[in-house]
Amino acid sequence: MPGETLDAALGAAQGLAKRGIGSVFTNLGENVTDRIEAQQVASHYLEVLRRIHECGLSTEVSVKLTQLGLDLSPEFCFENLEKIILQEKKEAIVWVDMEASAYVDSTLAIYRRALQKYANVGVCLQAYLYRTKKDFEELLQLGPSIRLVKGAYKESPAIAYPKKPDVDENYFELAKAMMAAQAAGQCVRAAFGTHDVSLIRRMAEHAKQNGFAKKEFEVQMLYGIQREEQERLAREGYRSGVLVAYGTYWYPWFVRRLAERPANLWFMARNLFAL
Fold it and tell me: Which of the following is catalytic: 50, 105, 112, 147?
């Protein structure tokens, strides 16, 4: 994190833009169970977009539906999401994060509803879930924008690949399908959220062999993680983006992620020592 405030995030985005790297903002928080708080989150994102546009940045936003009141009511959540989509420019994407597996169906239902009304909305899919290939294929009927990640929540082996090599291979297969769909005009935008350098280079080689221009291959990483790879991608003409998280909720968010999946601690430690 560059800091807890929106100003800190904007400063980070401006610095990234100077190096040819895009950015996506997310205000940390989840599982809001108070209507006023959920409305305040939506209002905050409206202010975020206003400031982004005012600064002339191409920064996008990524929202969690439980932060917008999904646990209260899908209809209430959709109303808050719709306000944010309407505030964003048509050429940009409002990204909808994917949360734990219990929320996949409700998240996709709201996403489909939004996508039927607005083209400038995308969703995150998680490669470690067995169901994701089917979810992806069904979404293609609507012309989605998709950000593919491996998945960071602790899930049962009954619904998610428990071993990293299997997750990596499923990620690569899904990535190939996303690139093919993008080339065919079925997927508006394909973005790959990963810090796995070997996987990134494997996907980039596949893209090259299949005639994709570098600017059509997009990788999104977290702020401060794999900085050299972020800058290499930008220098070489690929579309490099960074998810910039900020907000006062960072500590409970961090502790919850570690409690859910202790392997996240090893991932963090590896990258701290790599800086």
Answer: 147
